[in-house]
Design goal:
Layout lengths: L2 H19 L5 H23 L5 E5 L4 E3 L5 E6 L4 E10 L5 E5 L2 E3 L2 E5 L6 E10 L5 E10 L26 H8 L1 H53 L1
Parallel strand pairs: 2-9
Antiparallel strand pairs: 1-3, 3-7, 4-5, 4-8, 6-7, 8-9
């Protein structure tokens, strides 16, 4: 057999193989394959979405500005988390830790009570184990901007007025200091009275002396007169 006779035979064989491979796939098989592919894609895309719980709310709300410090913080999830080492940490704007405690799990929420907080911005970092056993975590923040009470201004009407009446211990001195004219008048009256009494005493003494002298003089005149009468007789 010559080489030229073998070539058509190979061509025929290739043509036969090509014809066999070109047979169409039955419609039921194609539908089954499409269904299997769609199911696989749905399982692959749906499994991660339902694998972990997600956060549905916080208290206070993320970014909230409060006019009073909250009493607690809480995180609410889409399902009940497991009580496996949950944690909530609260820090202020300077990074100082204000709270680092294990929260209380109640239904779908994890909450913890807060200490007294001053005006500042605070960040809440939380971590829980979701219902499917996978740990999840996140952060949110809130700001406390409570109004500071101003000190009341001093009310002049509330200031006790000075009493016009002097104290018991100050009565005498205050009276004397308040009325020097009266004191001087009293002193002058006392001196005048003493002077009058002295003048009266002096007048009485002088009168007594004059009376004694008058009596003595009268007696002397009588004695002389009697002596003269005796001499004449």
């Amino acid at each position: 057999m010559t080489p030229t006779q073998l070539i058509p035979a190979r061509s025929t064989s290739l043509s036969t193989r090509t014809t066999r491979a070109a047979h169409p796939v039955p419609a039921p098989l194609r539908a089954l394959a499409a269904l299997a592919l769609a199911t696989g894609v749905a399982l692959l895309t749906g499994a991660p979405a339902s694998a972990h719980d997600s956060i549905v709310g916080t208290s206070p709300e993320d970014g909230a500005v409060l006019d009073a410090a909250p009493a607690s913080v809480a995180v609410t999830l889409s399902d009940v988390p497991q009580a496996i080492a949950p944690r909530i940490i609260v820090t202020n704007s300077a990074g100082a830790t204000m709270l680092d405690e294990e929260p209380v799990i109640t239904d779908r929420s994890a909450s913890v009570e807060l200490p007294a907080l001053e005006n500042d911005t605070y960040q809440v970092a939380w971590r829980v184990v979701s219902s499917d056993g996978h740990p999840i975590q996140g952060t949110y923040s809130f700001t406390v901007a409570a109004q500071v009470a101003e000190e009341p201004a001093t009310d002049p009407a509330a200031t006790p007025a000075a009493s016009d009446e002097p104290a018991v211990g100050e009565t005498a001195s205050s009276t004397a200091a308040a009325d020097p004219t009266s004191t001087a008048s009293t002193s002058t009256d006392a001196e005048t009275t003493d002077a009058d009494e002295g003048s009266s005493s002096t007048a009485l003494v002088a009168g007594a002396i004059v009376a004694v002298l008058a009596v003595a003089l009268a007696g002397l005149v009588l004695v002389r007169r009697r002596s003269s009468l005796k001499d004449e007789s």
